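agent> fetching stored inputs for the guanosine-5'-triphosphate docking request
agent> found them:
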Amino acid sequence: MEAFAWLLIFVGRPNAGKSSLIGKLTAVNPTIGKKPGSTRRINEYNLSKKFKVVDVPGWGKVHSRTKEFEERVKQEIVDYFEENSFRIPACVLVIDAKSLIDVSKRLSKKGIIPIDQELYQFLLSNKIKPIVVLNKIDKIYKHEADQAMEYFKDSVNFNRLSKQLQESFLFVSAKRGTNLDSLRDLIRQRLRDGGVEEFERYIKLSK
Ligand SMILES: Nc1nc2c(ncn2[C@@H]2O[C@H](COP(=O)(O)OP(=O)(O)OP(=O)(O)O)[C@@H](O)[C@H]2O)c(=O)[nH]1
Ligand SMILES: [Mg+2]
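agent> prediction call returned; pasting tokens
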């Protein structure tokens, strides 16, 4: 049987920058790609014998892939979280700030719950306290980033969240390195809260 390990997970839509952030914050180098769908399966990387960082494929539509592929990936992710939620002290929901507004507004007009919000609720329902990062802020103006953040917070009923969850939303740029120290600190805080502070040292800005 596989030895027990704690998990730090990065999830989000295709192309949001999950693999890039893992590359910046840990010693592992996952595949990064220009096109959505670069990460094809759930990849677990050992940071130590008892601690892994998990790079998850994008949740949602990838143009070059079939509907069946998308559904299979979603099911794998759902199963993975349901099986492992008890050993996930920290989980980062990565959102592409630029596409958030475009996509979300279009969908919510049609009465469809946008994917990033759906994912957030899904994580909460699995007793996970997500850290939300709006990534790629180097690509947009500050007022657009603020607007995207407000929009996201509204759609997940920010005011009703616990104080700890409310303090777990931040802007970052994996590309420029903006605010990655704050992200690192939040992840470390979650590890401390989960009683696994011995793994804090694996979360550092190494590149
Ligand atoms: N401008 C900009 N580009 C970024 C940033 N973070 C990631 N990217 C780029 O976005 C693209 C996707 O990055 P990945 O890290 O592969 O994204 P992912 O979420 O792992 O994607 P999938 O595995 O396909 O779900 C790459 O071209 C990255 O270089 C950022 O902060 N700013
Ligand atoms: Mg990836």
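agent> quick read of the result: Residues 18-19, 38-39, 55 surround magnesium ion (ligand 2) (CB under 6 Å).
agent> awaiting further instructions
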